[in-house]
Design brief:
Blueprint: E1 2-11, E2 14-20, E3 41-47, E4 57-62, H1 64-95, H2 101-130, E5 135-139
Antiparallel strand pairs: 1-2, 1-4, 2-3, 4-5
Helix pairs in contact: 1-2
Length: 140
């Protein structure tokens, strides 16, 4: 995955690069009623390993495998944990003939979302420290 951005600010050993978000629709944005075609810019912070100055054009490259695994972690883990927690708690409470099974299962599912948030936050913190070389910057 590649994106091209412009260095907008420089602070000590860090640069702030502005990227324009690409549309998720593909080529037929005119026929789409969603507002995703409107280009929005985002500012990201990177270490200045390129000795880039303000106004320089840079290209960011990421490994597709790491992007896909990170997306699964962010979207898949909470969904799987939420659904499995609701299913298991509903099944166990129905065997114990408890009342308000649906409400309690929902509350336990919400607790599982909080737990998955904490897990993702911990993994993200470790990922930032490790920086396995999954993101590459190069000057253009």
């Amino acid at each position: 995955m590649e994106s091209i951005g412009i260095v907008r600010a420089k602070n000590n050993n860090k640069i702030f690069v502005e990227f324009t978000r690409e549309s998720a629709c593909g080529e037929s944005c005119e026929s789409c009623s969603a507002k995703c075609a409107e280009s929005e810019s985002e500012l990201f912070e990177f270490p200045n390993t390129l000795s880039a100055d303000i106004g320089d054009v840079v290209k960011i490259k990421t490994r597709d495998r790491s992007v896909l695994s990170y997306k699964f972690l962010v979207y898949g883990l909470p969904l799987i944990l939420f659904m499995s927690t609701i299913t298991i708690s509903y099944y166990l409470m129905s065997k114990m003939f408890m009342k308000n099974i649906e409400l309690i299962s929902l509350i336990m599912g919400m607790i599982s979302l909080i737990i998955s948030y904490l897990i993702i936050k911990g993994i993200d913190h470790k990922f930032q420290k490790a920086n396995k070389g999954d993101i590459f910057l190069e000057k253009m």
